[in-house]
Amino acid sequence: MIKVLDCTLRDGGYVNNWKFGFDNIKNIIDTLSKSNLDYIECGFLKNIDYKEEKSVFSNISQLKKISNSDNLCLMINYGDIKIEDLDLSNNITLRIAFKKHERFEALEFCKTVKDKGFKIFINPMVTDSYTNEELSDLISRVNKISPIALTIADTIGEMTTDEITDLFKRIDSQLDKKTAICFHSHNNLQMSFRNAETLIKLCNKDSNNDFQGERQQRDLIIDSSVFGMGRGAGNLCTELITQYLNKNYQKKYNITSITEVSHKYIMPIYEKTPWGCSAESYLAAINHCHPNYVKFLSEKGFKTEEMNKIFQAIPEEKKSVFDKEFIEKLVV
């Protein structure tokens, strides 16, 4: 089964510091709820002072005051909230993201959250940075937790179709069949739609013959955002992937509701703070550098050709995870 998760209010928040406004947050959730999307990710959950105008919450009850739909998600970056601060809600799914070096402690956290009664996704950042041995160990631990989904996160936006296919197959061959694979992309190389389409065809038994003899019996969840709203180059467009699934796989997503969100709430943000593929995001991707390096260097006034030299000077072990202290010293 193919499903779509809209992450506009979460990943899109990197564009506007999550300041959508309380009424807009409510209206976006309510309107997307009419679109038949399978999941709506409403923002981050973290230990902060809650502000109504931002899609960042300090407890789940704050979200439930906005909407009580049964397909809502929140993301936790590992370390941002304690187990004892989680108020249980049977209809809120938690997506738990973590950096590679945090994975052992983070997976213990995931298990405890799952044991507490939550439905969870497990989201290892920069998934393609794992070696075969590290990936196998990760999957073995994930299988013991049995989440709804394990996410392939193309955090840097650097993966080609061949690379995403290979990574998907390696995960699929080891992951418990009851666990879905989720795909979260960034559009630095303009490959988000193509890569999502590739995985959809690979998973769906009704696809054409492109993958004859290779199809996997695996539930797939595709992350997207309205008008591709997201950091830097942005994400896969919810409008595009849902229309593609309606046309080719008999899905019934309400495109009108999605475009209403785009027109009323997202385009005004885009007009002030545009996102999308750029020379800088492209260069970051081909140099395997985290998108926050682009943001940092842009704010410091570096030009494109200067950024490229800086990306090339960053050591491999520093590229995939943004290190502000390191980059500040490097560019002095």
Present the secondary structure layout.
Layout: E1 2-6, H1 8-11, H2 13-16, H3 22-33, E2 39-45, E3 56-57, H4 60-64, E4 72-77, E5 92-98, H5 103-115, E6 119-124, H6 132-145, E7 149-153, H7 161-172, E8 180-184, H8 192-203, E9 220-224, H9 238-249, H10 255-272, H11 279-286, H12 291-299, H13 304-313, H14 316-319, H15 324-330
Parallel strand pairs: 1-2, 1-9, 2-3, 2-4, 4-5, 5-6, 6-7, 7-8, 8-9
Helix pairs in contact: 3-10, 5-6, 7-8, 11-13
Number of helices: 15
**Low-confidence runs of at least 5 consecutive residues:** none
User: How much is the average pLDDT?
Assistant: 93
Q: What portion of the residues fall into strands of 2 or more residues? A: 5-15%
Radius of gyration: 19 Å
- The general outline is globular
The CATH topology of the largest domain comes to TIM Barrel
- Secondary structure class reads alpha/beta
Note the run of SSEs as H and E: EHHHEEHEEHEHEHEHEHHHHHHH
Total E-strand runs: 9
Say which CATH homologous superfamily of the largest domain is assigned.
Aldolase class I
Number of domains: 2
At the first level of CATH, the class of the largest domain is Alpha Beta
For the sheet with most strands, the description reads: 8 strands, parallel, barrel
| Largest sheet strand order | 1-2-4-5-6-7-8-9
> Do you know the CATH architecture of the largest domain?
Alpha-Beta Barrel
Distance between the termini: 51 Å
Helix fraction by DSSP (H/I, runs of at least 4) = 40-55%
